[in-house]
Amino acid sequence: MKKETKEKTVEQEVSKQPDFVEEILTVGLMLKKAREEKGESIEKIANTLRIRPVYLKALEESDYESFPGKAYALGFLRGYAAFLELDVDKLLTQYRQETSFKPDELNMPVSEQPAPFPSIKCLLVGVAAIVVVWGFWYFLTYKETQIETIPVISSEQETVLPEDVIVVSEENIEPVVEKEQKILKELEVSKETTAKKEKDKKRSVQIVAREEVWVEIEQDDTLILSRTLKKGEKYDVPESKEELFLKTGNAGGLDVFVDGKKVKPLGGVGKVVSGISLSPEKLKKR
After folding, report:
1. Closest CA to 203 of 232, 233, 244
2. Residues 6+ apart with CB under 8 A from 40
3. What's the distance, CA 61 to chain centroid?
4. CA–CA separation, 130 vs 82, rounded Å?
5. Cα atoms in the 13 Å half-sphere on the side-chain side of 49
6. Kind of pairing, strands 261-262 and 254-258?
7. CATH class entry, domain 205-284
């Protein structure tokens, strides 16, 4: 009876052994088991993930020394686990426990000898040399500049001068000033005269018939012109101190010019107008 009880106890322990093995599976065995359950080959997964097959195989065999660095192993493991639809965070945690993960340290090369730094004496010597060179260059440049700016005048140039050149001295300074003042005064008088002539200049007014039209010009109820202008005929309005007025039976048949420039039409074709001032200023303001 005791023997049968003992055999049953052993069988129960053996039946529980797979669960115990599953709990202690390494990251590599978990990856391999998941891949085999999916029926996928390492080569096919490597082609999909763009990872070399040797690295996937190294993950399944927990051969982490085959990777260039631990960061590479972590990256490949993350992608492989995601593809097999495993718990990525759980696998990464177990991986760190298995490998006692520590970030790769960056070893920067250190020079055995300190970088050379110039001494104060060398610096002072360099500055002094720069100052000496600059001073020498400035001296040469200044000397050449002075020589170029001093004109050399021959004896002939001293005695022969152009006729329109006036040599100013204490003896003739006053005549020169008087001459300049006289020239300025003449220029001012010339400007005033020109302006006065322009002001006094009388403007011309001309009437041109575009078609046959009757016109009448009067001044203070005095009739000066009353006639029919033929097409293309021109009439120069006489100059007068008193204002002249125009009357026509066809305002659109006339063109009026002031100093050769056409002014606005007096009216439409066939329109009768009267009392149109022929003053050049008023015609230009129309």
Report:
1. 244
2. none
3. 63
4. 68
5. 23
6. antiparallel
7. mainly beta
In angstroms, the Cα distances linking 35 to 11, 85, 139, 183, 199 are 31, 10, 88, 114, 112
The two structure tokens encoding residue 147:
């020589």
Residues in the chain: 286
Strand partners, 254: 209
CATH number at 17-99? 1.10.260.40
State both tokens at 148: 């170029």
Residue type, 73: A
What's the N-to-C CA distance of the chain in angstroms? Answer: 143
Looking at this protein, which amino acid is placed at residue 214?
Answer: W
Q: How far apart are CA 262 and CA 282, in angstroms?
A: 13
DSSP assignment letter at 251:
G
pLDDT score at 2? 45
Tell me which of 139 and 198 has the higher pLDDT.
139
List, in sequence order, every residue forming a beta bridge with 237; answer none if it has no partner: 205
**What burial letters (b/e) apply to 35-64, b meaning 16+ CB within 10 Å?**
beeeeeebeebbeeeebeeebbbbbbeeeb
Residue pLDDT, tens place only, 10-60: 445 544 444 444 456 888 899 999 899 989 999 999 899 999 999 999 999
Which residues does 185 contact at the CB level (< 8 Å), separation at least 6?
Answer: none
227 bridge partner residues: 215
User: What is the pLDDT at residue 176?
Assistant: 64
Residue 105 CA to residue 122 CA, distance in Å, equals 40
Domain boundaries, given as residue ranges, for the chain: 17-99, 205-284
